[in-house]
Amino acid sequence: MALMEDRDPEQDEQLKSEIWKSLYEFFLDEHERHLESVAEFGVSPGDLKALMRLDPGRREPMRALADMWRCDASTVTWIVDRLEKQGLVERQAHETDRRVKVVVLSQRGRQLRTQVFDRFYQPPAALSDLSHADLKTLHRLSIQLRPR
């Protein structure tokens, strides 16, 4: 029978706090790097966030976008106006209620979204500094941290 390691709840809390601070700062730095790397695409960070949340092939009512983006309807209108002017989305009538407008990614929007995701999913350079064993450990732990 394996011995249970003595656990100090206070030390565990401190350790969890330090881990989370390091991870959060790492993610913020990477997020900033991502925003800088996609600046060439000519979209603002807010527009980019909205574009990333639109699923290709799905027609989202404006009200649903407000809920998804956690903002009010006027903000959705403002964002969709900008994306539409850039040719990234199209407004269309709802299939059963022509009073409702739905938003769909245009061909250009789908292409840009793919390019951005391809760039975002490139591993950060910091991972290259880790050993194979550390990468395997990080992989195992990251899978455990995924939402269930």
TrEMBL record:
Coiled coil: none
Protein name: HTH marR-type domain-containing protein
GO biological process: response to stress
InterPro entries: HTH_MarR-typ, MarR/SlyA-like, WH-like_DNA-bd_sf, WH_DNA-bd_sf
Boundaries of every HTH marR-type domain copy: 16-147
PROSITE patterns per the UniProt record, alphabetical: HTH_MARR_2 (PS50995)
MF terms in GO: DNA-binding transcription factor activity
